[in-house]
Protein 1
Amino acid sequence: MVPLVVYIARDGSYRFKIILYGPSLSGKTTMLRKFKETNSDNLGKILSIEQSDGRTIFFDYTTLRVHRNVFCDIYTAPGQKRHRKQRLILLKSVDGVIFVADSDPRAVRENLESIRELRMFFGSRFKTLPLVIALNKRDLPDALPMTVLLRILELNRPFVAYPTIAIRGLGIDIVFRNAIRLTVLSKLAPSIYRMELLELSRREPYYGVIKESIREDAIYALG
Ligand SMILES: Nc1nc2c(ncn2[C@@H]2O[C@H](COP(=O)(O)OP(=O)(O)OP(=O)(O)O)[C@@H](O)[C@H]2O)c(=O)[nH]1
Ligand SMILES: [Mg+2]
């Protein structure tokens, strides 16, 4: 049993740490910036440490006020292989993960390597970690079918996945909302969280559920 650690700041507020994880160029930074556009009232400034071509070197970071005294520190991890050390530093004391998968068929190996790294880092905790999958770049004409992409990830644990088009801001809000909800539940109401995981794990054969959350117009555009 993993001990529950809830970070309570000096002023009595709760703080949770959520990370957007996934291969390079899958759209993590884009997703956070788009989320900021529609939630600017509750989000702090985004601090980005990136190279001149826009790829993240260390992280993007912002704070989201979820409730009166509940805050989420949100980070994006740098996806490039050479930044593994930075990723491992960022993963320390993470409470919840948004895994941003790339639907581009040319990114199969990168998706797999990235989820494997995450699994290795968390070890036995991986199975119960608050996790939301964003199946990004659904606008690509040759996007892998969502079920194929999920099978490639070999999650073997309960999950919830949403299609997203980060460059157009589609599907993003629900990804964040659920990642925050699961993260806060896992810490403050663990028995409800465990029930949700159990419910998801009944969804054979992928141990989870794909929610068609993207807006109607986008689904239409996807054909
Ligand atoms: N077609 C398409 N392109 C996208 C989408 N989301 C992001 N991109 C593009 O993908 C590229 C990489 O996006 P980033 O957000 O910088 O990717 P990242 O995951 O932060 O990459 P690293 O910082 O290297 O880990 C950019 O050119 C984005 O415009 C999407 O939904 N569809
Ligand atoms: Mg980035």
Protein 2
Amino acid sequence: MFIPRINHFAMEFDWHQLTPYHLLATALVGLMAAWFVKHLMRLPKNLPPGPTGLPLLGVVSKFFGTSDPLALLSEWADMYGEITSFNIGTQLVVLLNAYEVVAEAFRHPDLQDRPRCRIKEEVSGCGRNAGLLIGVGQSWKEQRKFTLSVFRSLGVGKKSYEDTVAAEMTQLGRAIKEKKGSPFDPNILLGQAVANVICTIIFGTQYTYSDTEFQQGTKSSFSHHSLKSVIADLFFAGMETTTTTLKWFILYMMAYPEVQSRVQAELDHVVGRERLPGLSDGKNLPYTCAVIMEVQRKGAVVAMGVPHLASVDVTIRGYTIPKGTIIYPNIWKVMNSKNFWDDSDAFKPERFLSEDGKLTNRQELIYFSTGRRICPGEQLARMETFLGFTSLLHRFTFKKPDNSPPLSLDANLGGTRSSLPYMTCAIPRESTENLLD
Ligand code: HEM
């Protein structure tokens, strides 16, 4: 039945009408189909489950119709489980949707590379050794070790660095006070404070040439270029993330004034009105710390983490992750999944408190990722967040300006998951006038 029809078609078809373009197009389609079949045959059978996409395009089209890509990825996580895979174009992507699987994968030594970022490689002139954030292999290891040891020797994130960060937060408070309670967008002021802290790390201390750390640096993967790359990475990775975090804090406090009042009451009780809060107060401020954790959970500033790349074929949870696969930790899902978090959509700082009011940590709160590439700025960011949040709330009450549009807790998904622009009024609290300047 079918064969005679083809014969009939072949006889009826006017083959003289075929132009070279037709032939070329047919050859191209044939080649693409052959490539696609070969590509499919090469893929291992036990890839993590996931949505099927179109040949060559993968699931790209599914993102076109959605205004909330995180919700779509979250749906896939609910449908396919803790580890899912799909193609974006011809690139295989694996998504890790649960804490245990992120922890297992990101501990694995062969899942620590980064996808290539040609622009950064070109700009830095260092190729694949371009700094810490996208560096791979031995040079990444050396640059990470170097950065962490510089942080350690400066006491970054430790008690000895507290004064530097606290001084910056006092300066921030002063600038906010100058607004005299009138509406302002906190973005620029917060950004300046965060940038200044990173500046003190990078430019505030001089190494001597005899310093062993410095000498090791010059022998190995370190060049003038790669050092510049690391510095650029610290600004890039540390600026927007921390500023965005502080912006979420102010926004959530405006949206939940009763939470703001309770934090202020705890600060007044523990710290008193004679001084600003310090790091050592943290252990006596369980509610305040729970609020910080809940804003981190809801804010999920680096919602999809920073992608890793499989350097060889790796098996995780019985699934093969082939060499060259890009792996994303779905940090937002891990911190917001209905399976792990009771009433996950709600803003409920109490979820981090035990019945007797003690702070309880949750391993699923992977705000800074986890494993071998975990954020090296974590301690610094934690210090800035704690000192920034507590000192601002000790001095001011943040209020939505009258006649301003309703507050939105929706997010913009760009480099970070950030709040939509907003204005705030910082009303100085009583009895802070002379005591805290
Ligand atoms: C609230 C603020 C911050 C958040 C939420 C955050 C989050 C993250 C996350 C999720 C990663 C990816 C880890 C991975 O690949 O698995 C990362 C990497 C990184 N972060 Fe942060 N970060 C913050 C602040 C900072 C600060 C203050 C610095 C430095 C001053 C910094 C420097 C870096 C660097 C250099 C990397 C790359 C590490 C590597 O590839 O080995 N971050 N951060």
